[in-house]
Predict the 3D structure of the following.
Amino acid sequence: MQRRKFIGKAALASLASIVGADIVYGSKMAENYIPLALQDPDPFKLFNKDKEMVVLNDKPWNMEAQAHLLDDKITPNKYIFVRNNGLIPEEIDVNNWTLTIDGESVKEKKTYTLDELKSKFKQHTYQLTLECGGNGRSEFDPPAKGNQWTIGAVYCASWTGIRLRDVLEDVGIKDDAVYFGYHAADIHLSRDPAKEPISRGAPMAKALQDETILAFKMNGEDIPLAHGYPLRVVAGGWPASVSGKWLQRISIRNIVHDGTKMTGTAYRVPCKPVAPGSKVADEDMCIIESMPVKSLITYPKSGATISKGKTLTIRGHAWAGELQVAKMEYSIDFGATWKTCMLDKPANRLAWQHFSADVDFPQEGYYEVWAKATDSNGVAQPMLLPGWNPKGYLNNACHRIAVKIA
Amino acid sequence: MKKQNHDKLKKDFRSFYKVLMIACASIGVFVVALMYLIKNPDVSIFKSSEPNSEIVAVPVEEEGLDKVENGIHVRTGFVEAPGMMETVQNCTNCHSAKLVIQNRMNKERWKSTIKWMQETQNLWDLGKNEDIIIDYLVTNYPPQKKGRREVLSNIDWYELKD
């Protein structure tokens, strides 16, 4: 026993010398766990991602797409951004995976196996847009804290699962239910088992929507590990952090859920507009609900040179959180004039909509094609950065690409 | 009568003392022997025939651990400057250096970020290293002015065929 302990420590010490620092919580490391520093360092192989994806952070893993990678109508896994607040679960025992529904506002706590969930409840498939609340953060001035996402933390995949509402009806919910909060199998960065990396949720009205599902398939296949295998919440149109991955438990709360990253400044913006760089007290920060109207030009890739007299066909997607996109326009003169794009209806509510336009350029030179979406309430994307906020959320400024006519 | 008792007591105490000394000495010898065995687990009396499979063999270039190339600490990507090693040692245990490098903050905001990490993320007290780290960060990763919208830069021009 003594000897085993000693060797264990020696191994950790040698790991520490490789990693270059003490391994915090080394004593809590699972025996078979290989620290990330020693795992296959190629995240593209690790997560089956395209080489053009951009790694923002490798502990925890965060990776985003570029606009031209998001050209597919339904985003394939290789172009889907990876956002983690903690460490990806190391062991997933799918045969013994369960989902427990508990909380102050359930009539009785209930636990289901994966098979029960799949067989007991009707399955639905929806295309749902998920965008990180911090997508576009890199543009804020003064800079906001966190991963510096540019434009690629958004996608629309096809999700198959069961309605959260159907499960909650089976469990029985009390009249005082206010919010749902998820709990998951990911691991806190400090490896402290008492801490959850993230535990967010949404008001009951969102929980009860047709499209709020507990998904077990993405694009017709098992959900990839980095995206929440074997079970996750998908709540389209809201910050993607509401769509908890590696789902093990849902609490139905009689208060606004107070899990990790629900409180303080996380996923919150000032309730009232503030000047750039302002300090905002926690109590003056409000939880983000629906994401704002936004669009991306996914074809051509920025930097296209075309010959004079040729018509350029542009295309892309537009989305508007809980709402629908009503109008899509483009400008080649920095917003002085706008022309209308063709805009498809969404495949279903909360799916992004595809647009296209044939663009003619009057003469040779440098152009930028700017795209602007307007939602069903008549609210459009700003050309400049929207209101500054301390954590750099909700940047829905118009996307643009550079084009040269030669 | 009194003196006799006293002598007896003295004698008893002496023999008790002797026993105690012997006990302490044997414990001491035992501890020394045990420590030797712990430090040298291959000493014959505990040696087992099974191969020592628990030692983790890891491919490493030890000497490359803190290699600096072109002013960049290769392992973390940090700029080599005063305070870099303190930053490496205290700020890359839980998260990657990439998260630090991405963020541009002034002294006050780094201070409050460190405080937040201490309150919620199990970061330890940095002691005198706190100022060294903050100075390193604000000097080498200062906030950049971006205005309300930046010019498109780093455009990778290509010819679009049909």
User: Anything to note?
Assistant: Chain B touches chain A at residues 38, 41, 46, 52, 54-56, 58, 60, 62, 65-66, 75, 88-89, 92-96, 98-99, 102-105, 109, 113, 121-122, 143-150, 152, 155-160 (CB under 8 Å). Residues 7-45 of chain B form one domain. The longest strand of chain B covers residues 68-69. The first helix of chain B runs from residue 2 to 39.
